[in-house]
Each structure stands twice: as structure tokens, then as C-alpha cells.
Amino acid sequence: MKYKIFFILIMLIMLAGCYQKQEEPTIKEPVIDEGVKEEAIKEEEAVIKEKVSLIKLLPEEYPYFKDDMQYKDIDKSIAKSLSYLKRVNSNKKFTFGEDTYTASYLIKSLETFNNFIATKPSEEILNRFIKAKYQVYQSAGNDAEKNLLITGYFEPLLKGSLKKTKNFTIPLYAIPKDIIYVKLGDFSEELKGKKIAGRLVKNRLQPYHDRYDIEYGNAIFNKAKKLAWIENRIDRFFLEIQGSGKVILENGEIINIHYHATNGRKYNSIGTLLIKERKIGHKEMSMQAIYEYLQENPEEIKKVLPYNKNFVFFKTEKEGPIGCISVALTPMRSIATDRKIFPQAALSFIQTYKPITDSDNNIIEWKKMNLFTQNQDTGGAIKGAGRADFFWGNGDYARLAAGYMKHKGTLFFLALKKDK
Q1: Which residues, in sequence order, are CB contacts of 89 under 8 Å at separation 6+?
Q2: Where are the domains of the chain?
Q3: One CATH from 3.30.230.30, 2.40.50.140, 3.90.1170.40, 2.40.40.10 for 35-154+323-420
Q4: Contact 29/259 with Cβ under 8 angstroms?
Q5: What would the pLDDT profile of 88-147 be if each residue is shown by its tens digit?
Q6: Can you state the percent helix, strand and coil of the chain, rounding each to 5?
């Protein structure tokens, strides 16, 4: 087997000289760093088991359903999921544990729920309705209580310009002209699902430029379109981590920036590096802690950021941010999960915690939170039944909540019961 794969890779490199067409990935795979969440993620990934990811519940096992936002914006998030389900084949199957539902059936399920919550039912009526009409499934989680590790993400708002200026000197790059993406599964079934990115050097496919060469060697400056210019490298780095954001131009115009592809290099967490070097303590680690450390120690930026060789290329969208099912996400209604095991565009219910802040936007405490959500996104670090990422939206509160959220929670999926 090893020799077979080695032979395929040799042939691939030889063929690369004839391969000129660039394939532009269309699936969003946001890189989610974060020394912020790194240690907890590692612990969780170590216990992912081969088991049913969604467990079918009996009515008496259902959680107590309530919505802390009094159903606000549920209709918006459901409309986005419906637009996706109406685009795919009506017979496309979606897996809920050991059960499956077609796209056409999930459309009926979502429309039924949407029509019902439009009446703004009381909690008692809501729970009676769900018990009578819906089958509920619970994520198996990563412990005996079926808890998940739930983290958060947000949409950065950055000042910028369409041209390089004195204040805006850092470019947001589109995909470079010379990068080549290759699906290895086209060469062997054993390599299905794997892909590489590279560039031609004397008719040989070589790994693409890493972050250091792009950041400090101007390796792609004349090979990639600059979508916009922003103020500093730290902001660009965290924009890559979040996967999308908005650039506000000096005339007030807003550009929606969205993940498109990467350079194919290995992703390394700078948070792990800073913990290892004892620059930030494990308990103090957060997205904000990393940001503040780099701002206070600018001489470290050139060393710390290139530790992560992975570099993200962007594209612009009419709206945003866009999830993995190509719909705009709804703040506090969209979640990201492992798309391989959880049904996309499905109605979900999450129980976790939200930060309560004072007038200065400092976190006072974390309070229980219950919300209906839509499964509309995914992420590089969101793997297995024990992980979910909650989209907070944009603004100061969203940034704070996303940066510090690293809490236990439970996750449920709902589907309209089938007629017997």
C-alpha cells in the first residue's frame, strides 16, 4: 500500500507540469485556531468514538424547550436553510443518527415549525407541540452526560481601503494565479477526500509559499488580486481564523470578505506556541489574550504569526458571513458542526452559556442559554459529536463572547415525525 501511494505521488508530480488549470474550491472550510480553544479541542478530539452521533429520544427524554430570544430571527435562519434545501435534489438524504429524511421532508419539517412559532407560543404550548409533532435526537457528545465543548465565533469589522494608503498597508489576497489545487482522490481511491496545493517550479509541483514568504517575502504580491487593504497583520490573522468579516471603507461602503481557499500548508496554533513558551498562561488563554500580547509586543509578531504556515485567501460576497451550505449566517441562530455526522440545514436546539457584561463590556458571569438554531456551518476544528461552534454575529459583545466562550452544553436536532 505504502509503495502504491508513493508511486501515485511520484506520477502526480510528473504530471503536474501538464496541469495548468487552477481549481478554485467552493466549500468554506474556515480555520479555527485558537490557542483560545486549543487544549480543550485536543482533549475532546482524543475521545471521539465510533458510535452513533445522534441518539433518538423517547418523548419523556426530551429536554425542556424554551427560547431566550422569544423566537426573534428564527424565521430568518429557517428561510436560509429552506433556500439551501430547495436548491439540492429533493431526494437528497440527511442522516439523523440511524434515521434518514429527504430534503423535501426537511422542507416540510422546517415550514411546519416556522408557521407554529410565528404564533409566539408559550413554553407550555411549545413543549406540547414538539412532543406531539417532532422526533428529537440528541448529540452523543463526548461524555456520559452527552455534553459537548461549545465555542464561539464572530464576524470581525475592520476599517480599510481599496487602495494602499499610509494607514492601510496590509493586503487581503484573493487566490494567487500560480497556485494549483489537486484532488488526490482523482488518482487513487485510497486518497479520496485528500487534496494538496502547490506551484510549478521547473515543471515540478512544489509546496506553495508558506505564511512567512507571503507576509514578509512578498511571494504573491504580483500574483494575487488585493481585495482590500487593512491596518495590521494581527487583524488579518484573526480574520483568517474567523473565516469571514466586513471591511468598512472610508466612504462608508462595506465589503463582505469571505474565506475561499488556503495555501495548503500545515495549520499550527499560535495559542499553543504562546502557552508552550509561557508567554500566556493556559488559564488566561483566549483570543483577546493573544491579540493583546501581540499588540503589546510588536517585535514578536514576525516570529509568532509565521509559526502557523497556513495562509488564507479570500473572496468577496454580496452578503455575509456565508456558511458551508452557501447561505448567510444569522447571529445567535447559526451553529457550526461536523458536516460529516450532523444533518446540514436542520433545526437544532442548543443549551449552553452566554456572558453577562457590565457597562464597560467586562464579563461578570456566564448565564445559562437556551436557543433554537440552524446547522448551517462547519469548521476545521469542529470534529466529532462532542463539538459545536456558536455564531455570535459582529460587534464588541460578539467579539468578547466568541473570544471567551469555551463551555459545556447539549445539542439536539428536531425533525417532523413521519406518519405511521
Answers
A1: 103
A2: 35-154+323-420
A3: 2.40.40.10
A4: yes
A5: 999 999 999 999 999 999 999 999 999 999 999 999 999 999 999 999 999 999 999 999
A6: 30, 30, 40
